[in-house]
Amino acid sequence: MSDSDNEKRVVPSPREVEDAGTSKVVDKMTERKLMSKLDRRIIPMIMWMYLVNFMDRVAIGNARLYGMEEDLNLQGDQFQIAVSVLFITYCLFETPSNMIIKRLRPPRYLATLIFCWGIVATFTAFVQNFAGLVACRLLLGFFEAGFFPGIMLYLTMFYNRKNIALRTAYFF
Length: 172
Description:
The protein is mainly alpha-helical and 172 residues long. Helices cover 77% and strands 0% of the residues. The chain is elongated and about 70 Å long.
C-alpha cells in the first residue's frame, strides 16, 4: 500500500464502533416501539424454552421420587451416574456447538436442537434399564449443549449491543 492509501483509510472512533448496529434514521419513539414489539414476541418464547430446558434437566429427581430406581432395577450408584452423565456430553459439546452454529442459521439450528431434545426427552419414558437411561441422558446433554449459546447468538440477530444486556437478563 502506498502512503496515500493509508491517509485515505479512516479508523472509526470507539463511539462509532459501539453504535455500529444502530440506525441514525430511526427516531427514538420508533426504536422504542420496535424494541417493545420484539420483546413481546421473542423474550417470552425463549424464557419458556429455558424453563422447559431446566425442568427437563432436573426431572430425573422427580422420577426418583416416583419409583424410577425400582422400575429400572438400579443398584448402588447407578442413579447418581445417570444424573451426572448428562453433564459430560453437555460440557464436551458446548464448544463444538458454538462453532457449528456460526456456520448455520441460528433459528434453524435451535429448532433442530430443540426438536431432537424433545424427541429424546419423550422417549426417555420408554427406557427399560440402566443402559437405556444413560444413553438418553447422554443424548440430552448433547442436544442441550447448544441451547444456551444458540439463544445468545439468536438474540444478537435482533438486538444491538446497547439493548442485548437487558434482554439477556430477561432470559434468566
